[in-house]
């Protein structure tokens, strides 16, 4: 390790005295954590996707620091470290905890309250950071040359570029402003249709009930551009299979048997009796005519979502299996490194850039987490007694130590965006459920207990991956590790406060939903929460043995076929599960990125990874995501206030536009606005680039 330390020279030397862990850096980072945490909640609930927050926060920190805060590069690093915790924790929370709403036990939904979400978010985030303290020297320092940590390295390049000068953050602010204005026109004034849809009739002979639709929002276009054409194409391919293959096929086979579909929807819990009208989110069943107003949606809810759930589960397993060699080597390598010793911890001996928090913090912190889980009341953490919750705590610590190690090394090799968090969470849930079965804990009452373990591990693994990237950034720029670790704890706690509040705000049903007997907006078409639904489905399937396995298995083998064809099964599976209205606008954003890259290739323009991260297209797309998501959260907050919501209804222009142009004209006007936004993104992405 000594040779490694002497051969590597960080941007800021260990001997340099520079402002780093300051009040303004912590407060600014906490503010960004709240903003990006709330944005990630919104985006993950709607699309089941997230985007990395580290680089955008670093860009914004540099700009604010230069013009207003007068921050150093090390303070900017603390800002992005503190702020990035919000995105990773929000992703872990949203991908699992909405599952409380979909478990068999009616009382499970009671655990989807603010304080339970807050506790699990904080505990999972803190656990992910705690377990990374002893791993930093082995994974970040000793394996500096073998584990690149791509996002962490890119973020360090951004911070260095900012130190050298450049006004590249202006483009990100432009995107944010554009998206915010677009979203206000769409969500408050309703000048722009939110989800134009065009569907063939059920009576159509050759292609019945095929439906094309799209939520034409700025955040979806931005996400598509960021993830690129390949992933976006695979996502929409799954949607094409669902809505243009499965739906017309099933519509043809069940043309005269609307009652079969209705009975399946009743079995799944969408409403309680086929002699009563069905809700809009299940196709609006009419018991008098024995038909649906929206056959496409009814078929999707009755059959295709279960096929999608099976495909997502199989995709997660396949991803996990493919990474087993990496998992084993990662765990062995990390344990071996720890056995060699972590060095002297005394600040008087160790250079500033090698000072970590003490191992005592890890041990005491883990013990406190265990005891608090065991002692919390049953209204917050499910469990019949202290002993049962103590077992939950032990499972969390054991699985956490393992998967944090795995997550950290995997993101070091292939990046955070490819981290198989879903696979790790599925493995945790399976292991937990099998342990429950071994101790004869079967039945509905134990389902929320299993979700607690899976949820905390998902949050911990996601945060560990982000923490690893942050520590890599700090290592390259010359930060003090213990200050970063403290900043990560602060970011985890502060962002969790906002994440829980955002989830509960978005979960408020509209008056129309309430009239239909819908008590939670999450889980509806408005906020599908695909991963949370999947986790609940798996738990119920293992503990209760009450799944329509024939549909689930169809999805499983679709995932296998895709993997055999060389296509990433998990991305394709998510496309099957999500509505086409989600994946289609994402694909359009990805297609714009593909056209930009094709144009660069045609003109023989060579773009380095650093230039790509800081390119105008990427920065503008990041602004679109942030602006659109923030506007969505703001509108949700305003709509939850009855007096404000009544006033918003008075400025709704949809009725007057429809009267002037007709329903179809209103939809096409929305499409035109979306096309205009795509054109703006393309022109900015292909504009002349300024030297950083």
Model description:
With 692 residues, the chain is an all-alpha fold. The chain folds into 2 domains: 2-164 and 374-514, no CATH class; 196-341 and 548-614, no CATH class. 69% of the residues lie in helices and 1% in strands. It has 26 helices and 4 strands. It has helices at 2-7, 23-47, 54-69, 73-96, 114-132, 136-141, 150-164, 169-187, 218-253, 258-267, 295-322, 324-339, 359-375, 386-414, 421-438, 447-477, 481-506, 511-515, 530-544, 549-564, 569-577, 580-602, 609-613, 616-639, 642-650, 654-685, and strands at residues 197-199, 211-213, 285-286, 291-292. It has a two-stranded antiparallel sheet with strand order 1-2. A two-stranded antiparallel ribbon has the order 3-4. Helix 20 crosses helix 21 and helix 22 (580-602) runs parallel beside helix 26 (654-685). The longest helix has 36 residues, at 218-253. It is globular and about 80 Å long. The two termini are 34 Å apart.
């Amino acid at each position: 390790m000594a040779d490694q330390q002497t051969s590597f020279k960080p941007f800021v030397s260990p001997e340099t005295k520079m402002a780093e862990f300051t009040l303004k850096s912590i407060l600014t980072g906490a503010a960004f954590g709240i903003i990006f945490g709330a944005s990630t909640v919104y985006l993950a609930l709607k699309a089941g996707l997230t985007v990395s927050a580290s680089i955008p926060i670093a860009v914004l920190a540099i700009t604010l620091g230069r013009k207003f805060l007068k921050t150093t590069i090390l303070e900017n690093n603390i800002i992005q470290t503190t702020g990035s915790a919000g995105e990773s924790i929000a992703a872990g929370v949203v991908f699992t905890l909405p599952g409380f709403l979909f478990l068999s036990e009616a009382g499970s939904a009671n655990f989807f309250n603010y304080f339970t979400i807050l506790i699990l978010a904080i505990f999972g985030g803190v656990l992910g950071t705690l377990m990374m303290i002893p791993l930093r020297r082995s994974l970040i320092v000793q394996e500096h040359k073998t584990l690149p940590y791509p996002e962490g390295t890119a973020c360090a390049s951004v911070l260095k570029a900012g130190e050298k000068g450049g006004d590249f953050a202006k483009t990100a602010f432009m995107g944010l402003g554009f998206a915010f204005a677009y979203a206000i026109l769409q969500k408050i004034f309703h000048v722009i249709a939110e989800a134009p849809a065009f569907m063939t009739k059920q009576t159509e002979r050759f292609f019945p009930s095929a439906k094309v639709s799209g939520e034409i929002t700025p955040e979806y276009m931005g996400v598509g551009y960021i993830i690129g054409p390949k992933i976006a194409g695979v996502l929409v391919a799954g949607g094409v299979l669902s809505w243009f293959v499965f739906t017309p096929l099933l519509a043809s086979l069940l043309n005269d048997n609307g009652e079969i579909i209705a009975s399946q929807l009743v079995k799944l819990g969408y409403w309680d009796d086929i002699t009563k009208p069905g809700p809009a989110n299940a196709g609006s069943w009419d018991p008098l005519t024995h038909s649906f107003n929206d056959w496409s949606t009814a078929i999707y809810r009755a059959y295709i979502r279960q096929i999608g759930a099976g495909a997502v589960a199989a995709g997660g397993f396949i991803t996990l299996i493919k990474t087993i060699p990496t998992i084993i080597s990662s765990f062995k390598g990390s344990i071996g490194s720890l056995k060699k010793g972590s060095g002297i911890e005394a600040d008087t001996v160790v250079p500033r850039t090698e000072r970590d928090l003490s191992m005592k913090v890890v041990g005491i912190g883990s013990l406190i987490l265990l005891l608090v889980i065991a002692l919390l009341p049953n209204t917050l953490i499910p469990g019949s007694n202290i002993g049962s919750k103590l077992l939950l705590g032990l499972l969390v610590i054991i699985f956490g130590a393992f998967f944090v190690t795995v997550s950290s090394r995997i993101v070091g090799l292939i990046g955070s965006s490819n981290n198989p968090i879903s696979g790790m969470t599925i493995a945790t849930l399976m292991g937990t459920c099998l342990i429950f079965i071994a101790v004869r804990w079967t039945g509905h009452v134990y389902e929320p207990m299993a979700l607690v373990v899976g949820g905390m591990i998902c949050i911990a693994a996601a945060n560990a991956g982000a923490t690893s990237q942050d520590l890599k950034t700090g290592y390259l720029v010359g930060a003090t590790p213990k200050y970063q670790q403290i900043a990560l704890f602060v970011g985890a706690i502060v962002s969790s406060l906002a994440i829980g509040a955002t989830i509960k705000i978005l979960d408020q049903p509209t008056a129309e939903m309430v009239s239909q007997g819908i008590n939670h907006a999450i889980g509806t078409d408005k906020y599908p929460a695909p991963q949370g639904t999947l986790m609940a489905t798996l738990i119920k399937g293992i503990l209760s043995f009450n799944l329509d396995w024939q549909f689930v298995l169809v999805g499983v083998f679709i995932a296998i076929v895709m993997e055999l064809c060389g296509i990433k099964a998990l991305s394709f599976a998510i496309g099957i599960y999500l509505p086409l209205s989600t994946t289609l606008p994402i694909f359009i954003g990805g297609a714009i990125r593909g056209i930009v890259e094709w144009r660069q290739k045609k003109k023989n323009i060579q773009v380095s990874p650093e230039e790509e991260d800081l390119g105008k297209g990427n920065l503008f797309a990041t602004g679109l995501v942030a602006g659109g998501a923030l506007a969505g959260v703001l509108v949700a907050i305003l709509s939850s206030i009855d007096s404000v919501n009544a006033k918003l209804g008075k400025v709704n222009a949809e009725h007057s536009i429809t009267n002037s142009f007709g329903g179809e004209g209103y939809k096409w006007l929305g499409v035109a606005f979306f096309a205009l936004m795509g054109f703006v993104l393309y022109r900015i992405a292909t504009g002349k680039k300024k030297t950083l």
